[in-house]
Amino acid sequence: MATNSPISLDNLRFDRRLRTASSEGYYIIADKTRLGLIDLHFAPASVQCTMILEHELERTQLARLIDQIDEDLVLSADIPRDNFVVTVYTGREVGLFSDDFHADDDQVALDIGGEDDDNDDDDDIDPDEIEN
């Protein structure tokens, strides 16, 4: 997981990664730092949110972030709901894999043990714009 330096939630924004008929996915960005990502699933009576944070946040910051997600993304979707349920995880991106990924035995190595992962070529966001 990323640094222990203080994270500011000023200039918070949500950059959409995907959208379907009943779900949306966003990167969480504060200034130029990617804090993590969320997936929102709109069910008939509730909205389920899975949040993965790449940086440590204090409980008050986490509560503020959840309130901001509710205000900016959930309520603005104008879908009636009885409950907003958020499950929060902390972690880091290990890689991006898709049908286009074909692992050759001799050419693929996945380092999941290191703390310093500077190879962010798989991000959908311009790495010059965002700091992990």
Radius of gyration: 16 Å
Estimated helix fraction: 10-25%
Low-confidence stretches: 119-123
The count of helical stretches stands at: 1
Strand order of the largest sheet: 1-2-3-4-5
- The structural domain count equals 1
Mean pLDDT: 82
Q: What class, by secondary structure content?
A: mainly beta
Number of strands: 5
Provide the succession of SSEs.
EEEEHE
What is the 3D form?
globular
Please outline the major beta sheet.
5 strands, mixed
Beta fraction of the residues? 25-35%
CA(first)-CA(last) distance: 10 Å
Q: Explain this structure to me?
A:
The chain has 132 residues and is mainly beta. It has one domain (1-96, 107-125). The protein contains 1 helix and 5 strands; from the N terminus they run ββββαβ. It has a 5-stranded mixed β-sheet with strand order 1-2-3-4-5, with helices on one face. The chain starts with 11 loop residues before the first strand and ends in a 42-residue tail after the last strand.
Q: Outline of this structure?
A:
By secondary structure, the protein is mainly β.
Tags for this model:
132 residues; mainly beta; five-stranded mixed beta sheet; 1 helix; globular
Give me the secondary-structure topology.
Blueprint: E1 12-19, E2 23-30, E3 33-42, E4 46-53, H1 59-74, E5 83-90
Parallel strand pairs: 4-5
Antiparallel strand pairs: 1-2, 2-3, 3-4
